[in-house]
Write a structure and sequence with these properties.
- Strands 5-6-7-8-9-10-11-12 form an eight-stranded parallel barrel, surrounded by six helices. Strands 1-2 form a two-stranded antiparallel ribbon.
- 38% of the residues lie in helices and 14% in strands.
- The protein has a single domain, classed as Alpha-Beta Barrel (TIM Barrel).
- It has helices at residues 51-63, 81-94, 122-136, 155-168, 181-194, 216-223, 251-254, 266-281, 286-295, 310-317, 327-337; strands at 7-8, 11-12, 24-26, 33-35, 37-40, 68-70, 102-107, 141-146, 171-177, 198-202, 226-229, 302-305.
- It has 338 residues and is an alpha/beta fold.
- Helix 3 runs parallel beside helix 4 (155-168), helix 4 crosses helix 5 and helix 5 packs parallel to helix 6.
């Protein structure tokens, strides 16, 4: 029996030792603990992906203490497919474990045609969550995010919609994603006045994309808001995948929407090679070091990883085995990435 397929005659039964395999961090000043590594369903859970493989990844994740599954309304392809597939996987395997799971989804990017399926209006956010719950077969989500800032909609309207959804019982907590430090502080203050604190911020953050260090992390720390980083591997650049060319199954070849081949030039590859040597000296793969580099900062509650297989997920989990960085190594990493 493989590690990712834990079955009995009653169907999937989670491993008894799952919580001994994961460390958890408190989300800001809330009562909620999240696993240091969470699983994201941005890629590999659409209708074009193998359903059984997607199911195996989530079972493997839960068997290793990953309790947080992160989605969004337009994850696919096509839009909505990841939530639909997740709903079927949940019904088949995880229904009995609902109270052990943190399930999140988001709205804010384009989802359906016309003026009401995008950005941050009350109309869009409330309709979107209703659709998401229907696709996933859930009564509520644990975290509902506004997926991106919207300068054309009053922040009071967007935050008011999130507050409304919590008070309706359709979400237990709310979060925001990709808001600047200033926008985050404004949102936090509005939500505090409404009585629904902002639980968490989900920024894009990696060794190569460090905008959050310019004030945002300080705001989150001061306001008691958690942080969960997405794209920790810079869409696969911070791995050894592209050091010998472009594999046929790589994201740069298969799906150019988020990573284009021209982004991986010789200048970038030189940095990746140098970082890879540092990772080797630490007894880690480059991907593991990139995840560990984020988790070294305790303001980061969790890191969202994607996975195309159970084996890839297990490899990412090994990042937790070495989170210590000497000042010399950190200085060297900064020099490489300048």
């Amino acid at each position: 029996m493989s590690e990712s397929n834990n079955f009995s005659k009653k169907g999937y039964q989670a491993k008894d030792d799952r919580y001994q395999k994961m460390n958890y961090r408190r989300t800001g000043k809330s009562g909620l603990l999240l696993p240091m590594i969470s699983i994201g369903l941005w890629h590999n859970f659409g209708f074009t992906d193998d359903f059984e493989n997607s199911s195996d990844i989530l079972k493997c994740a839960f068997d290793h203490g990953i309790t947080h599954f992160d989605l969004a309304n337009n994850y696919g392809p096509p839009y909505g497919a990841a939530e639909t597939n997740f709903g079927n996987i949940f019904k088949q395997n995880f229904k009995q474990y609902r109270d052990e799971l943190i399930i999140s989804t988001k709205a804010g990017w384009d989802m359906w045609p016309g003026p009401y399926g995008d950005y941050g209006s009350r109309k869009y956010l409330i309709a979107s969550l209703d659709q998401s719950l229907q696709r996933m077969g859930l009564d509520y989500v644990d975290i509902f995010y506004h997926h991106r800032p919207d300068s054309d909609t009053p922040l009071e309207e967007t935050m008011g919609a999130l507050d409304h959804l919590v008070k309706q019982g359709k979400a237990l907590y709310i979060g925001i994603s990709q808001y600047s430090a200033e926008q985050t502080l404004q949102a936090v203050n509005i939500l505090n006045d409404l009585g629904t604190p902002c639980l968490i911020h989900q920024p894009r953050y990696s060794m190569m994309d460090r905008w959050v260090e310019d004030g945002l992390l300080n705001v989150l720390e001061n306001e008691g808001v958690g942080a969960i980083a997405f794209s920790p591997l810079e869409q696969g650049i911070l791995t050894s995948k592209y050091l010998k060319g472009f594999p046929k199954d790589s994201r740069a070849v298969r799906d150019g929407r988020y990573l284009k081949k021209e982004q991986i030039n010789e200048k970038i590859l030189l940095k990746v090679r140098q970082l890879n040597e540092i990772a080797k000296s630490r007894g880690q793969s480059l991907a593991q070091m990139a995840i560990a580099w984020l988790l070294k900062d305790e303001r980061i509650t969790s890191v969202l990883v994607g996975a195309s297989s159970s084996e890839q997920l297990l490899d990412s989990l090994k990042a937790m085995e070495n989170l210590e960085f000497s000042s010399e190594v950190l200085k060297r990493i900064d020099q490489i990435l300048k």
